[in-house]
UniProtKB/TrEMBL annotation:
<dbReference type="Pfam" id="PF24390">
    <property type="entry name" value="PRTase-CE"/>
</dbReference>
<dbReference type="InterPro" id="IPR056920">
    <property type="entry name" value="PRTase-CE"/>
</dbReference>
<protein>
    <recommendedName>
        <fullName>PRTase-CE domain-containing protein</fullName>
    </recommendedName>
</protein>
<feature type="domain" description="PRTase-CE">
    <location>
        <begin position="29"/>
        <end position="339"/>
    </location>
</feature>
């Protein structure tokens, strides 16, 4: 069975060492456990609880983001703003100048490399242009100026008349990312009573009149945060705080393409075996707990922020999964799907 899964999915994991595939990694991973009983527990965990999200599955979710959340919102707002357009006449709305204007005034930004903005754009070539998608939210002044100039040109083409530069502003901002399990890296309370995290940082930039803020209108801006995969813990964390985040130029919504329900999390007594292994000091490296662990509020032994997930993404294992799954090559414990961290410790 595992041989079939290896060829079907697991071998595509991108962070295996050169020449290594899943079965070799599995053999080495199991070898580190001291008793046959422990190896049996670990092997059963892989067979029964491991969740591996392939590239094809991620790309499918990327393709669903626009038609599931963005297009319906643009259609609804267009119908609401123009009495001549009836909400149920979707084809008429999509063909209208009003809808095309709203669509062109939509800016898509990636929150990380996992956002796959290139794949997102290619999935909707008839709807989205290259000049309204950017792989990151940190934008240089020349890049921002180029986006504005192209927007003005395209809006003038749609309107059939010259659109003034001060009216060439984005009114929708869609923030894309692949995965969140805790939500703390996106939005959390800061030390001084302010807000921290990716979403908070972007909202502050949008609220300003420079760089990213210069691209959007002064009012009526809709920010849509779309995550391809999110766990219940993250959804609850973000939704609880999002309404408290100030944004003077408009509103913020949070959407998830695929929700990992509470049954995914490793919990006793069902998962006592693997949790017992993860809890043993000999199967954990204290070096994994760096300054970033403090943000999550607990050790990464059971995953960042204590998420206790059995999840692997094809391009990298999230650190919200248990440490035994993702232990990096620099750690003294071997991970089944070794993670490559964005944060490297220099000695």
């Amino acid at each position: 069975m595992l041989e079939s899964f290896a060829s079907y999915k697991y071998d595509e994991y991108q962070q295996f060492a050169p020449g290594r595939r899943f079965l070799e990694s599995l053999a080495l991973w199991l070898q580190q456990f001291e008793t046959k009983g422990e190896r049996d527990i670990a092997y059963a965990f892989v067979k029964e609880r491991l969740i591996f999200v392939s590239n094809a599955e991620i790309n499918s979710l990327v393709g669903l983001a626009f038609p599931t959340f963005v297009r319906p919102k643009l259609i609804a707002d267009t119908a609401e703003g123009h009495s001549a357009l009836e909400a149920h006449r979707v084809k008429s709305i999509v063909k209208s100048k009003e809808y095309r204007t709203r669509l062109r005034k939509t800016l898509f930004l990636g929150l990380s490399d996992g956002a796959r903005t290139d794949q997102f754009r290619r999935a909707h070539p008839q709807d989205i242009t290259h000049e309204q998608v950017f792989h990151a939210y940190d934008m240089s002044s020349p890049k921002a100026k180029g986006f504005t100039e192209k927007l003005q040109k395209d809006l003038s083409t749609i309107a059939g008349a010259e659109v003034p530069e001060d009216q060439a502003k984005f009114e929708y901002v869609v923030l894309l990312d692949d995965f969140t399990a805790s939500g703390t890296s996106y939005l959390r309370e800061g030390k001084n009573g302010d807000w921290d995290g990716k979403i908070a940082k972007i909202i502050r930039e949008l609220d300003s009149d420079e760089l990213l803020g210069s691209l959007v209108a002064q009012s009526g801006v809709s920010v849509l945060v779309v995550i391809y995969i999110a766990a219940d813990q993250a959804i609850e964390h973000i939704e609880k705080r999002l309404d408290q985040l100030p944004f003077s130029k408009g509103s913020i919504e949070f959407k998830v393409v695929h929700r990992l329900n509470s049954g995914v999390k490793l919990v006793p007594p069902t998962d006592d075996g693997i949790l017992s292994l993860a809890d043993q000091d000999r199967y954990f490296d204290p070096d994994a707990d760096d300054e970033h662990s403090k943000v999550g509020g607990t050790s990464k032994r059971f995953g960042y922020a204590g998420c206790k997930l059995p999840v692997v993404l094809a391009h990298n294992t999230p650190n919200n999964s248990i440490f035994l799954l993702w232990a990096e090559d620099v750690h003294r414990v071997r991970g089944l799907f070794p993670r490559v961290s964005r944060h490297r410790k220099f000695e």
